[in-house]
């Protein structure tokens, strides 16, 4: 298929684009490079620099004729979204609206959307399932839920074949593609940067949660497993339907487990300092992946925390300074 990957110069988008190319698809990446990296663009992919909020540019690209779109372009920092909610709704919701209108005009019939389990907010039960009520607690999750709902209406009205994938924490690396966010807010790269000596210590926010070791538990999934789910979703999309799937590892890992596993993998001292809980952080966030396993046959091939951290560590060692080093 001829495919457009928005945000394809970012962490997840670049890995997905690489897998699409390996599967024989023709890939064009559309990215404004505000948080992506030119060096993350896979060889063999065509690159078009642009912003979804530029309606004319977006329509110009979509009118070239694509069979499908994989949509990763979004702002995704929870804390930043609390400080700048208007910016998040403008970028994530209006940007997607421009994309959907351009898709309809250009005849692109399939969409896979990178959603988030943050739409569920603080869960009433775990693991979280797709029919649990969405109650986002921050503008980032709220903007993604607004997009999910918009996609549902457009799919029914315009015959779009759409799938949203909701996931929490993505980790690991894939070949030359790795995680390089500026600023970095994710736990595993922060822990590994501490192992590299780029940080003095890693903070553990809350040690009095009702969990086995007192620290918060989160769902982690290897970026290669996550990317494979997007390819399955692309094939499974059906005209006029909007399917929603959670992507989870089946179990969660605590903050202490992440730090201890990183110590074992890196064979380095990693200093950890206790800090107060962050407001709104629930004790456990784990997503059920039962539905996508049943319907699409997806299953994680690298569910072990050590494998995720090992791959991320190897990438960091081979990319000092990230993509800019």
Give your account of this protein's structure.
With 325 residues, the chain is α/β, with parallel strands linked by helices. Helices cover 38% and strands 18% of the residues. It contains ten helices and 13 strands. It has helices at 11-22, 55-62, 78-83, 85-106, 139-158, 187-195, 223-236, 255-266, 290-296, 305-318; strands at residues 2-6, 26-31, 46-49, 68-71, 110-114, 161-167, 169-171, 202-205, 217-222, 242-247, 252-254, 272-275, 284-285. The strands form three sheets. The chain has a seven-stranded parallel sheet with strand order 3-2-1-4-5-6-10.
What is the rounded distance between the termini? 34 Å
Query: Helix count, per DSSP?
Result: 10
Give the strand content: 15-25%
Could you name the ranges where pLDDT drops below 50 across 5 or more consecutive residues?
none
Question: Would you count the extended β strands for me?
Answer: 13
- Give the overall shape, derived from the CA principal axes: globular
Strand order of the largest sheet: 3-2-1-4-5-6-10
Overall pLDDT: 96
Tell me the radius of gyration.
19 Å
User: Structural class, please?
Assistant: alpha/beta
The SSE string, one letter per element, is EHEEHEHHEHEEHEEHEEHEEHH
Portion of residues within helices: 25-40%
For the biggest sheet, the summary is: 7 strands, parallel
Oligomeric state of the chains in view: single chain
């Amino acid at each position: 298929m001829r495919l457009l990957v928005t945000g394809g110069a970012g962490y997840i988008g670049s890995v997905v684009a690489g897998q699409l190319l390996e599967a024989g698809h023709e890939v064009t990446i559309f990215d404004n490079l505000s948080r992506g990296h030119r060096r993350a663009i896979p060889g063999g992919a065509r690159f078009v620099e642009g912003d979804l909020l530029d309606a004319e540019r977006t329509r110009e690209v979509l009118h070239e004729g694509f069979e499908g779109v994989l949509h990763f372009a979004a702002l995704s920092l929870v804390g930043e979204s609390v400080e700048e909610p208007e910016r998040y709704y403008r970028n994530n919701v209006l940007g997607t609206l421009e994309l959907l209108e351009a898709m309809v005009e250009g005849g692109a019939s399939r969409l896979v959307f990178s959603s988030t389990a943050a739409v569920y907010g603080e869960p009433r039960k775990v693991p979280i399932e797709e029919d649990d009520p969405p109650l986002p607690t921050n503008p980032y999750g709220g903007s993604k839920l607004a997009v999910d709902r918009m996609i549902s209406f457009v799919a029914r009205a315009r015959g779009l074949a759409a799938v949203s994938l909701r996931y929490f924490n993505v980790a690991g690396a894939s070949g030359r593609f790795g995680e390089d966010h500026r600023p970095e807010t994710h736990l595993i790269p922060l822990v590994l940067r501490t192992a590299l000596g780029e940080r003095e210590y890693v903070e553990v926010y809350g040690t009095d949660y009702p969990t086995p070791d007192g620290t918060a538990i989160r769902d982690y999934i290897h970026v290669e497993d996550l990317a494979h789910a997007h390819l399955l979703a692309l094939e499974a999309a059906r005209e006029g339907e909007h399917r929603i799937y959670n992507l989870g590892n089946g179990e969660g890992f605590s903050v202490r487990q992440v730090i201890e596993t990183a110590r074992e993998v890196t064979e380095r001292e990693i200093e950890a300092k206790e800090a107060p809980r962050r407001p709104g952080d629930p004790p456990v966030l784990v997503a059920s992946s039962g539905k996508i396993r049943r319907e699409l046959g997806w299953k994680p091939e690298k569910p072990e925390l050590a494998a995720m951290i090992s791959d991320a560590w190897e990438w960091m060692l081979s990319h000092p300074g990230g993509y800019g080093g």
